[in-house]
Amino acid sequence: xxxxxxxSSKVNALQTSWWTDDPAAREKLHRExxxxxxxxxxxxxxxIPQLIQVAREAVSRPGDVYYDSGDPTLAxxxxxxxxxxxxxxxVIERIETAKAWxxxxxxxxxxxxxxxxxxCTDFVRGVAGAEGAKSILNPEMLIIVSSPxxxxxxxxxxxxxxxxxxxxxxxxxICDPDDRSVVSERDIEEYYMGNITAGQFRPEFTKKARHxxxxxxxxxxxxxxxxxxxxxxxxxxxxxxxxxxxxxxxxDLYRAxxxxxxxxxxxxxxxxxxxxxxxxxxPLWGLQAARKLLKL
Length: 296
Fold this sequence. Notes:
The chain is an alpha+beta fold.
């Protein structure tokens, strides 16, 4: 399955290609990892001088830049790793030795990067098919620049994610998103209640995870709620995290389950019972409708 696309944005056509050799990619979407391929490595957009400029622009948008520096373990959490007392552009300039991890959110606000995201989105929706494409919502691009041998600790995300390797290589471990011995229902519920570091790494997870060496020109699909962690190889890494959201009602059902569990109940996971989901979502829908009416 291959797609060569040209941007419709008011920038020069990028003429990048995205494809997968996995014939089961559509069935694996949202469920398990699979590899895709791309032709981004030749673009000057992802060279260090251009990335410094992108980071400088993103700093003016509150919350769109995060960076830290240190030697985290797989069990460490966001916010526990020291933040350098120098601007992010200087950290990128020193990335070879800074032991740093830098993330620039919403890079697609720059139309050149937005064109890359548009092309990948078209490809992913093609993989999903006409019906599946309806759940490919709110595309977002994060640029990740990290030092040689740097670890990205154990975590999971609300979105489906394509981790796209542009420069350097890394080792990636991805767990089954349905394995509740790795990420429990309670972990997911706490995540949607605001604890984005929910879940805890244990060494035995390494045996359960699928291990992939991700090289330039490759990307891997990471399903929603699939715990994963990363170890860079001995070179600077530039990668993209291209994220797509699920319909919002799924998050609301996990929040409902959180409150039901606090009452001592044992609610089923969203999707297990259509009837139970409807009972849980009805009061949430009513509350949302009331809030809209009050605003009017």
